[in-house]
Amino acid sequence: MPSTACDIAELELHELEAALGALGQPAFRARQLYRWVYRRGLADFAGMTDLGVPLREDLAGRFRIGTPEVVRKDVSIDGTTKFLLRLADGKLIESVFIPDTPSMTFCISTQVGCAMACGFCLTGKMGLVRNLTAGEIAGQVRVLAAATDMLDHPFNIVLMGMGEPLHNYDNTMKALRMLHSEHGLAVSPRRVTISTVGIVPGLERLGREPLMPNLAVSLHATTDEQRTALVPPNRKYPLAAILEACRRFPLKKRNRITFEYVMLEGVNDSPDDARRLVRLLAGIKAKVNLIPLNPAPGIPYERPSDERVARFAQILADKHLTVSVRKSRGRDIRAACGQLIVEGGTKKSAAQQMALLMK
Ligand code: SF4
Fold this sequence. Notes:
Radius of gyration: 21 Å
Bound molecules: iron/sulfur cluster
Strand content: 15-25%
Structural class: alpha/beta
Number of helices: 12
Strand order of the largest sheet: 3-4-5-6-9-10-11-12-13-14
Shape: elongated
Number of strands: 14
């Protein structure tokens, strides 16, 4: 059973100041605690040596520091490391450390499972189990940064792990504020990318955030029919509505929206698809990231040939779109895009069980 003590990992700095203030502690105590938890990676009070022993004991009696527990670590031949993390209620999630992309990058989950059910994604087969709390989202970064010796180094965060961040909007944004605190890890929003299938009201809210991360929209198709088959939320938020929201999105100077496009052989990888994509993105400050599928058992699609991917990319480039082809990282440990699925979860859908049986 999770402890019922107040969890410091769920508090923004001003909330921690208020909680400690109610105990008669000055505001700087909260800043000290934040530094221990975020910059030093501590998960208990005993090691906080600049606090007196009686205070440490008092805090340990009232609070806890909820921290995901590393259950397993798989290291790919390319250095990508997939972490299986256990949450306080026993649920399991995955987070990935991707070195040298060229920056160090943490790929973080925002939900246990995902409700979006994208046809090429193993996580989508799990269904949504629950939202992660803000502390659990930020906690993945604390744990991965400590485990990879990155607490004192700059890193990027991509919210591209399990889940749809804009489907868990409030907790995701609270986690980003906690990670941004100058007394914590001081992660600049410029180093954070939110990836979404295009939940239009969420995009509109995001456009009003004071801390504005980079935006990546998972497009994956160029007609509504094709996209609805691959990304079912397209029924509610079709291409025209998403692209209109993107046109209105208040980008900072020199920023662009990244459009992710998973390439599936014979489905969305033709020259006609490429030409339609060019037309769809007209008037948007865009760059396109092509992601040749990482095939997996239970996923009914194939990866196109390198030649087909290159031809698609060339059509975009000829029309002056910035285009990159994502190098697959961690495929040998199933840490690549769309391959995150928890194998020891407490609840599995029929589809998830099938995917696991076919591994
Ligand atoms: S691709 Fe992303 S949004 Fe789609 S099902 Fe997988 S985790 Fe969810």
